[in-house]
Amino acid sequence: MKRPCVVVARENGEATRQHLAEADLIDQSFGIAVENGDLFIPVTDPDAVPEDLPLSDRDVPERTPQQTPADLLGYEPTYERLGDVVLVDEDDPERAAEIAEAIVESDIPVRSVLNRDSKVKGETRVRDWEVLADEGDERPPTETVHREYGHEFAVDVAEVYFSPRLATERNRVVEQIEPGEHVLDMFAGVGPYAIPMADAGAEVVACDLNPDAIAYLEANAERNGVADRITTHVGDVRELTEEYEGWADRLVMNLPHTAAEFADAAVAFAGDSCVIHLYDIQHEDGPFDRAREALVAAAGDEYEVTTLEERVVRSYAPHELNVCLDARLDRID
């Protein structure tokens, strides 16, 4: 039966499917068709599909809908999938156990179910997890492999910070990369920016305070075939300002709440012209003000600061937004 479908290359299929699923646009009554390396994902409302995703009418197979946790529970639980690990956030132990049991009994491919057991804490931004279900293979229940826009990232959520919700935002930045760029990822984590940027042809320096994150990044660079284009550093990124002074064509500053405090280091790294992606979490009234003011103050008379884009990434909390300020520094002669 012909249905409107989003057309996407196979390597970008999972991230696109997740993006469409978050918007509740996937037509679950039909399966995904595959032809010549492209996936055809049926959608319920083609008018609501983002403009950058091409559409085509396509014959797709009818299918028996998968049994979901909601089918078993009678209500829609909130959870995130990260590879074959499912993450929930429930304060009530009985409700958490009920949701975990439904997830395991559903048709979702899952190896373990984890419940958030603390807030993000410390300089390394990790949290504690309660294991609600675990099939018990040789890997820790907190470790998985996440696939995103054609790349694979091994990650252990008990050791490093990682959010699958930011896949679309990361890809937006990566798509701006030109081959040969010098990119400094100031708070790199396991490499979700650094690795696809290197794959796009950039020379990348990746820094993180968390040695476990850098260990995963190095393994992920090998896994994705870009280890020769990434230089890693464990420690405070400000330790690199002398070695990489004036080196960067692009900076990624993804450390919400505190990235703006590193504006002086960003200016030190900047070449004659440098694009900066500075992430922040601020009140909905003037959410970009702190990032912009920090860059302008750090640039002083040395650089002109131009705002390229002010982007709301997602809602973070009531009246608080996770945002990204894209700006360019141009050296003043």
UniProtKB/TrEMBL annotation:
Q: Is S-adenosyl-L-methionine tagged as a keyword?
A: yes
Pfam families associated with the record: TRM5-TYW2_MTfase, Trm5_N, TYW2_N_2
Q: Which GO terms describe its molecular function?
A: methyltransferase activity
GO aspect biological process, one term: tRNA methylation
Q: Which residue intervals define the domain SAM-dependent methyltransferase TRM5/TYW2-type in the entry?
A: 79-331
Q: Which InterPro entries does the UniProt entry name for this protein?
A: MeTrfase_TRM5/TYW2, SAM-dependent_MTases_sf, TRM5-TYW2-like_MTfase, TRM5/TYW2-like_N, Trm5a/b_N
Q: Where is this region: Disordered?
A: 45-71
The UniProt keywords, alphabetically, are: Cytoplasm, Methyltransferase, S-adenosyl-L-methionine, Transferase, tRNA processing
**PANTHER family per the UniProt record, alphabetical:** TRNA (GUANINE(37)-N1)-METHYLTRANSFERASE, TRNA METHYLTRANSFERASE
State the name under which the record lists this protein. Answer: Class I SAM-dependent methyltransferase
Question: Which organism is this entry from?
Answer: Halolamina litorea
